[in-house]
Amino acid sequence: MRIFSWLPVVALLVTACKSIEPTVPQNSVKPIPPLVPEVSNVSIPIEIDLKTYLNDAEKSLPKSFSGKNEQCEGLSTSYYFTREKINFKGSGNAMSYSVNGALKLKLNYCPKCQYLLDEKGSCVIPRVYLSCGDDEPMRRFTLDYSTNIKVGSDYTFNTSTSLKKFQLLDPCQMTIANIDVTSDVEKEIKKQLVGLQSEIDKQFKAIDIKSSAKEAWDLLQDPNLVPGYGYLNLNPSSLALSDIKLVDKKATLGLSIDISPSFTTEKPVVNKLSLPVLGSSTKSSGLNFGLDVVLSYDSLTSFVRQSFVGQIFEVKRKKIKVDDIQVSGSKDNRIVLKTTISGSKKGTIYLLAQPVLNDSLKRMELRNVDFDVETKSLLMKSAKWFFNSKIIDLIEKNGNFDYTSMVEDMKTEVNNSLNQEISKGVKMNGAINSIELKQLYYTTSHLVLRARLSGNLKLILE
What we know:
Layout: H1 2-17, E1 40-49, H2 51-60, E2 64-69, E3 74-83, E4 87-92, E5 94-110, E6 113-114, E7 122-123, E8 128-132, E9 139-151, E10 157-168, E11 175-176, E12 179-180, H3 182-194, H4 197-205, H5 210-220, E13 224-226, E14 230-233, E15 236-241, E16 245-248, E17 250-259, E18 262-264, E19 279-280, E20 287-296, H6 297-308, E21 312-315, E22 318-331, E23 334-343, E24 347-358, E25 363-371, H7 373-382, H8 391-398, E26 400-402, H9 404-418, E27 420-423, E28 426-442, E29 446-461
Parallel strand pairs: 15-19
Antiparallel strand pairs: 1-17, 2-3, 3-5, 4-5, 4-16, 5-8, 5-9, 6-7, 9-10, 11-12, 13-14, 14-18, 15-17, 16-17, 20-29, 21-22, 22-23, 23-24, 24-25, 25-26, 27-28, 28-29
């Protein structure tokens, strides 16, 4: 009988000394929702040096002009004039041209013609002949043209050129039969000068901006590698252009593009879109896109080990030491902490903890810590006192990790991908200004931190 009285004590001692070895929790994860691309509007400043085109226009225009307007009755004229080099100057959306020159005129006047014997007519009264700048120094003049410029939806320059000023610096005072014909002479000259307007418009029409736009459009559809994260795909969808601005002999244009940036882990196969019809420019909204950052459980384990391995806590004069702790998976939207302990109780326990993002402090905090159901069941049978241990409080108190360096590394890599020459004479220039970690998702091997990046992007055509 005395032997049987010792059995409960022996059983208790055996149970107390036995290591805790609960069943490993089964991973359970939910599908991660796909990133929804945001539409961003980015600006691409384009600068065009017009010197070559203007020089071609200057060369194509004749250096001298001659003509005549003959009639039997009234004033008949013949003229010859030469020009000097054209001076071009742009301002606003207009290109102005100033040119100086010299001319000579010959005039004759018939007061009355008869057509009985000659259908072309013959002067009844002897003609009066006059000249200006002939057999004497040619008379100097100055004139100004102005061309208003817009870019059409077909990527060509639409222009409208007009003669703004014509002035004889050495006027010809001509009077025939007490009639001042000076203004009539100037009108005839202007008619010839107005005819040159179409030639100027023709030169502007030849300026090719469509090729530059197509090159930029194609390049923006190419994926850009961001080492360690994947491929940045800009996914452009539309193009728009602001009004042209001219300064001297340079034209600047603001090309804006709607893009829907996204990240993929694998290099995507891109079916490139053709160059769209050009729309009206809208205000740039900057660059905004989402990015999934992978934080492996191995990396997270190194964080938690620094905080907990070697920690000792005491419960009812029983001491427990944390020998090791690692993130082994996920269950019920929490990570699984496999914790090896020694001291008054030895073995392995499994705890669940919910990582919470505190983006204002750039920290990840472990909250909602509890024992896994299998561990809890085993402790209920062998060590109820363990429920009063400080391990849960310890994890919630010290389980926070600074992720500032991770965000800065991400910013550096993305900025490097946004600042590079993507083709000869074509450069991307961009910067990420802010990164916010918005959401967190679980897999069997890593956490997915969903970030929102904001910044700006330009494409520079040189």
